[in-house]
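Entry for zinc ion complex. Fields follow.
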Amino acid sequence: MKATVMYAAGDVRVEKVPDARLVEASDALVRVTHACICGSDLWPYKKMARSDVGNRMGHEFIGLVEAVGADVRTVKRGDLVVAPFAWSDGTCVFCRQGLQTSCLHGGWWGGTDLDGGQGEAVRIPQADGTLVVLPVARDHALMPSLLTLSDVMGTGHHAALAAKVGPGKSVAVVGDGAVGLCGVIAARRLGAEQIILLGRRPDRIALAKEFGATDIVTERGEEAVARVQELTDDLGAHSVLECVGLEEAVVTSLQLARAGGAVGRVGVPQDNNLAGGIPFWKNVSVGGGPAPVRAYIEELLPDVLEGHIEPGRVFDRTGPLDDVPDGYRAMNERESIKVLIEF
Ligand SMILES: [Zn+2]
């Protein structure tokens, strides 16, 4: 089969790899119908050291179940399924509390040992805990929005929950990528009164406004903090969604929060410092981490199916599997917000 393999920064290839197949009795084999490229795929695209074997890529996908192992009960051949960006058993202590990204028997797609989503087929470990059956056909018009349930919409929702967004709150969203834009959708969905997006690109700003952003701040750093203070009666935002992952964005997020506020971090951290003493002196709670999107699929799915939210609009480019390398380039150059791959 064909799949995406990254060998070094800037070196992504679509090439022949061994066919995906069932290994354990708890596995399913999924033929991918839709996948996409993630903002987090751009971090290795910028700085991965050269590897002879390469890393299989992709962790967001929808597909058709082609076969299941003897122990699989919740999915069957022919089901259309969405996979969250981490696989999990659904039964351990962390899965039962809705934190499937910390599953004791789970893990992450791709790398050197497992198939990735940016390929023709994927072996799914722990299929019962991992996969969610979609009640639609593969050519359904909502497929782009359903695909966002594998990561970016669930991740934006997680940021909003960690930042304690609720009715009447003022919210600042740091980052205008697909996760930040989905964070705007999530904040509005949870009843926020004021949603301030920190972003610069006109196309992203326009989409954010349609998703519910009430104010746009194009400044960065200290100037952005001053602007958000002005917009919040000099108090700061109740809730801040950090959707970038760079140290500068984390520091800005902590500064944007008002006293007693909360910051939800979902940007994949690119530095190891924890942003000085800002959260300590302001009694600001800092939450967040990898979103347990598996826990949110059932909650968000009805809103997508009923058309209340339309996160699939973050996709502004669609192509076949062979376009993946150019899709990475386009996203890295910020020419595209997010790339959809159709098989
Ligand atoms: Zn588990």
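NOTE: The pocket of zinc ion is lined by residues 88-89, 92, 94-95, 103-106 (CB under 6 Å).
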